[in-house]
Amino acid sequence: MEGMKTLKFATSDKNQQHFAAAVRKNVNDYFREKGISPTANYAMVIQTLVMLSLYIVPFVLILTIPMNIWVALGLVIIMGLGTAGIGMSVMHDAVHGSYSRKEWVNKMFGSTMYLLGSNVFNWKVQHNLLHHTNTNIDGFDGDIDSKGPIRLSHSAPYKKFHRYQHIHAFFFYGLMTLSKLVQDFTQLAEYNKTGITRQLKRSPVGEYIKMVALKLLYLFIFIGLTLFFTDFTWWQVLVGFVIMHWTAGFILSIIFQLAHVVEGADQPMPNAEGVVDADWAAHELATTSNFGRNNWLLTWYVGGLNFQIEHHLFPHICHVHYSAISPIVEKTAKEHGLNYNLKPRFRDALRSHIRMLKVLGRPQQSTAA
What we know:
Strand order of the largest sheet: 1-2
Shape: globular
Number of helices: 15
Structural class: mainly alpha
Helix content: 55-70%
Order of helices and strands: EHHHHHHHHHHEHEHHHEH
């Protein structure tokens, strides 16, 4: 059984070695001194209700109130905003176990992943285990794998069509959640084949049956019920479904890319023995970027994913606390001579990502044959 590919993080740099213990102590001291829990608070509960409402209320209106196509279009776009909001602000924390100290609460809100048409088990493996452990390492972190016509890693093979990816990438970003509807099948098959599923004490057949059943239920609810209860034609319903997903996928992809594929975010590679020359905590700091830290509305909507440094160092802390611990992490990093990659505004991060797409769209950046 092959199982998950693992890397080792090791360095002789004393600053890196001491950073992990220091930042952990400083952040833990903050929660102890404040006398607060690192999990969700009432603000998180309100945020959850808002995001779920953005998704569910427009759908109920479409099913129950006769309306013209343009009103319906506006509602499916709002549903797309809600879909992305649920993924970033509700599901993400819950699947990391940071929503609540109670496992059943995390499991319940983690299940909102099914409202995106995706699969919780796949996400836990791809995101929690592979991405968070091997951040920005090509071949180990699937988040920087080449995605169709988009090249996100310096070590990925170069193709001529990558030259203009800083233009066409944004269209393909919108296909993220739609592609997951299908790619979940091949992804789970790969996890079953390599033994990851059994390694995590899950039944390969059971997980596949569960995923198929939930995806069919999802399609029945959001396509079948719309066809049954409204006068919209089948193609209008499908177009609305695609627009909803494209809206959600575009938002989710942009937010994810601005955290890791920007200037200053390293993409290290292990040596022949599978060793990365860095302490793990320092590696997370070096491969991750924050943006728009003072933009409270952005922070609220994206579930603190603009504080990716804090999230990667402390995935079990709920995002409602990131803005408070961010200065602590930054100060600790600087005290140990480590860079804290911060893009002050959203547009700064977006411009940096576009510049990175241009760099990665040049053939001289390819190290592959």
